[in-house]
Design a protein that fits this description.
alpha+beta; Tumour Suppressor Smad4; seven-stranded antiparallel beta sheet; elongated; six-stranded antiparallel beta sheet; single chain; 38% strand; Rossmann fold
Length: 286
């Protein structure tokens, strides 16, 4: 793999061992797992089914997930996010078949499962490397695939955040929170709050305020090497820190949170025609 954010690396090699990750509700994927099992058998590919997946679908576990060459996800963007986090740093790419709602991170639709995956297994897989975020809070460090959100610890209570980028102060903003997102996460909570969409290939993060009580709070795109530091300047309301939707900590009055582009990169599997622009058009331009 190359170290460039957003770089696309063709595989060219046939894939012989695949691990499957599915939606948390088995009914969501319909007959998707049965179809994948049949395809793997026809293609002479070992299909690895972990213990958790086996229990979810009432089948027998098989193979070693750590030995897989590719992760195939049957689910939506939430399932993709779970798989990308689970296999971060392993060198194993994750490719999705969308059985969810939006499915922006998925390369294939349900009706393309057999045809698209047959091409992938034959060596047409391409891998897109995407940056992650590192967040520091109270001595704790975490890695985010999609986004880091600093938000009010009390529902309905506004907070006041002071922030700085690259050591330069940007003032205080009364708001409900601040989103820092990766390119892969910029089409999620960031987009719904009017933030900028970052195309794959940009080695940057986006910052977007949630419901700012200001006419001057605007989104900002921040390059690698510039830390985003956020202080809670609210007298009586703590802020909580969410990493990919999960609460990981909080900051009381004058507490701080630091977010930067991380060293780890997610490996998103795709086919040549499933580009960022084509996915964006199909998911959002309707």
């Amino acid at each position: 793999m190359t170290p460039n954010a957003g770089s696309t690396v063709p595989s060219g090699e046939p894939i012989t061992r695949v691990v499957v990750v599915t939606h948390g509700r088995p009914g969501q994927v319909g007959d998707g797992l049965d179809r994948l099992v049949a395809l793997a058998a026809r293609s002479g590919v070992e299909l690895v089914i972990g213990v958790e997946e086996a229990e979810r679908h009432g089948v027998s576990a098989s193979g070693d997930p750590a030995a897989a060459e590719l992760v195939v996800v049957l689910g939506g963007d939430g399932t993709m996010l779970r798989a990308l986090r689970a296999y971060l740093g392993t060198g194993v790419p994750v490719l999705g078949v969308n059985f969810g709602r939006v499915g922006f991170l998925s390369a294939l639709g349900p009706d393309e499962l057999e045809g698209g995956l047959a091409r992938v297994l034959a060596g047409e897989l391409e891998v897109v490397e995407l940056p992650t975020l590192e967040v520091g809070n109270g001595g704790m460090a975490h890695v985010a695939v999609n986004d880091v959100v600093v938000t009010s610890g009390e529902i309905g209570r506004m907070i006041e955040l002071e922030w700085a980028v690259g050591g330069e102060d940007l003032g205080r903003v009364p708001c409900d929170g601040l989103i820092c997102s990766t390119p892969s996460g910029s089409t999620a909570y960031n987009l719904s709050n009017g933030g900028p969409v970052l195309m794959w290939g940009l080695d940057a993060l986006a910052t977007t305020f949630v419901a700012p009580h200001s006419l001057h709070a605007r989104p900002l795109v921040v390059p690698r090497g510039k830390d985003v530091v956020v202080w809670n300047r609210t007298a009586d309301v703590p802020v909580v820190v969410l990493v990919d939707g999960h609460r990981v900590g909080e900051a009381g009055r004058d507490g701080s949170v630091t977010v930067r582009l991380g060293e780890a990169r997610t490996l998103l599997g795709t086919l040549p025609e499933a580009t960022f622009v084509s996915r964006y058009r199909e998911s959002f331009s309707t």
